[in-house]
Amino acid sequence: MHALASNLRWLCTKTTNISLILGLMFVFTGCNNDDEYIPPTSYSTNQNGNAQVVGTTPVTNSNGRIVNCGSVRAVTEGTTDLQQAACRLEIPRLKGGEQNLFIVHTVPTYGINYAMEYNCTLRSQWWSAYRWDRTNSSKSVSRTDAWLPDPLIPQEYQTDQSDYSGTGYTRGHIMASEDRVYSRQANEQTFYYSNMQPQLYNFNTQGIWWNIENLLIRSQYNTNAFRDTLYVVKGGTIRQGEYTTTAKRLPVPKYFFMALLRKRNDIQVNGGYAAVGFWMEHKDNNDANYKAYARSIDELEDLTGLDFFCNLPDDIERTVEASYSTTVWKLQ
Questions:
Q1: Per-residue pLDDT tens for 8-43?
Q2: Rounded-to-integer distance, Cα 148 and Cα 150, Å
């Protein structure tokens, strides 16, 4: 993150020096490992120096307007606290800057549906991030096919059907439609074009991307027996040199990735957390050997340049990101 020189920095972190905090004239707000704010006087010696850094003062009234949280430009439909949203465990470290937009989509029945960071210059997202738990994993509606430009993005940076027509690529959901079938509005939001990236048909609809989404993550990971909460980050590479472009000037990622963090409340080791990543070359591929694509989060961070799960306490983050268990993640 790059802080604006003219602004104070609002820190989402835990600290070891309570007396220093009390001596400051500003109040710093933090995230604990359950994604909720805790007052500064409750901070312990458990450091979280790698946590998200956004803004100077709480920003809660976006209502569709783009607002500044320090160097991060952010927007949401309603009055969700955008700084607190940035501190959720599924949110990677935000890049910020003038060209990037932190978008938080919400629904009244649940709150935050999913979030993304969108590169307005490229008209493509860096990632989509969301979570599953008991309350949003039921199937209550069918696929809506409500294809629309994202209303939270300025019109000149939006994408729509015309950007895909005749390119030879499918509209590849990053957060899948089937991942949000607990309400109609939640499903409709998955069809915003901001949640799409160009994908080959035999990678997306009948390929490795769909296989891991459907046959592994939805079928085996998103169950009450496997997780209390499952945090998911997915996307394609849009760094310089890691994409090609269509005739309509949309980036086509050369690689796609998934980063997963599981929380089990009945497990004490590492606070009940475990993590794994998946990394796939974007090509026709119907492979079902999921283990071949598995990576530790540390490896995935090196490959993508992203900092996943930065809001975890540092000691837990270091441990769960260093390796993954093939037994836990059913990859044997």
A1: 334 344 333 333 333 333 223 334 344 443 323 222
A2: 6
